[in-house]
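Hey L., structure's done. Input below.
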Amino acid sequence: MSRINLQFHPRILDELANYSASRFTRDLISGLTVGIVALPLAMAFGIASGVAPEAGIFTAIIAGFLISALGGSRVQIGGPAGAFIIVVYGIIEQYGIENLFIATIVSGFMMMAMGLFKLGSLIRFIPVSIVIGFTNGIAVLIALSQMKDFFGLQIAKMPGDFFSQIIVIAAHADTVNWIALSLALLSLIFIFAWSHFLNRLEHHFHAQRRLIAPLKSIPSTVIVLVLGTSAVYLFGLHVETIGSRFGGIPQALPGFNLPKFSWVLVKQLFAPSVTIALLGSIESLLCARVADNLMADDIHHKKHDPNQELMALGVANVVTPFFGGIPSTGTIARTVTNIRTGATSPLSGIVHALTLLVIVLVAAPLASNIPLATLAAILLFVAFNMGEWREFRKLRHFTMNYRIILLGTFLLTVIIDLSVAVEVGLMLACMFFIYRVSSITTIQSLKSADLPQPLPDNVVAYSIFGSLFFGAVDKLETILEPQPKIPKIIIIELHQLINMDTTGLDGLKSLWNTLTKHQSRLLLCGVNSQPLDLMKRAGFIDEIGHDNCLTDLSHAIQRAHTLCHSTPQIPASTAVE
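Output:
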């Protein structure tokens, strides 16, 4: 029972214990800012995932509220994320949107189970090469999926896989909407150039820094969304908008919808559910770690509780689909914005969710004129920032194993599927790890110079270094293979053996059985706590005798001398069969 996390303790309970009016003001300002920042991203993520824009907004509202209210992080913001776009789009294309809801709910229960059984820290064991590989792969797929709206191509529906998308885009290249392309290019240039423009203004007009400072607090994505929408409304630009494709955004709260559950569906959706659960958990806990690093200078900041965060994330993913929402996780861009605008507690995340709710209830009709070309430009910006492109340039500095895992995960994510990429990446990482650990495991014959005292005749001593496990157990065979005559006593010194698994123990048992058949003995010495505990629990120490398991090499050699003098020599004809 000690391995189960029975305490559900949201971080907000600790933060509100010593809350103040000044902290509330900071949380209110940061929550309002993040809510405005989240609006274009939530709509863009929803559209790119193959659902209506309001699905992204409702996910940001409901999941954002629950993750902040129930989570284990002080400042993390939850909601729809770019990492889910390709996964959600693929699930909808293959299984349909109703089954996406079921897969999301099942993944939510998986996340809660991971938090309940304290598996939050295990997510950190996923190699960074796999994380970089699938993150960069997702970024490429997001960028490719936006080519339709960026160029204004007349494509009824984009396919889900990489090569089909390229073929369809190439086949419809003659349908470019030059107005949409111009608007998208201008939007993208503005997003990238906005901060540089403000920095140059600040440099040249140093005296007016106070006037420029408020502009720096407004994200470029929000400004370009307002400018793009205004351009469509004022100039009547002939481009596709949220209104023309989706009929606008409803000015109301989402309705409750109960998906049709069946055990057959759950079994069919197990693989997509695992993908959502793993991806959401990885993204959320990575985001929480980034937040902890950014808040390291705050003496009052406590690091996040990964298990509580997973349980809150699970609750959010169970609840959100009943209101038409898509998978959610911790979001790095919005969390960083939250920190930089002065957030002090999870209350800022709750304010962010309520801000989005007010916008939907009050200003939803204005969203009809939002151009999809501008949203495509925003997503291209997100994809660019999402990818860790410099890691490709650094590959030459790393081992071949690292390169194979990173590039393999990247290519499989782009060409085949994210779940396959992660599975193959983990399999390769495990194989390379097994090979590396087995390669450093060595068994050496101890010479007279290495011994504290001489060995009796017909006695040999060996030392094992490393880990005796299923990948290295075959090295025990080298103890007997090179010798034409099996020694009377074999001493194995184990103080450099870090750990041993049951396969390694079975190898030791086989060696002992072989020696017993030839009326020889096995002495062990210097056994560390983990291998010794395993030997005791398996009864191996009782089998070989407690007198034959010594504390160090000196005692083992003394024991060998005693055995050699008290036991008559075994004839060669009897010793070797």
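The first helix runs from residue 11 to 15. The chain has three domains: 11-250+280-388, 402-440, 442-566.

-- N.
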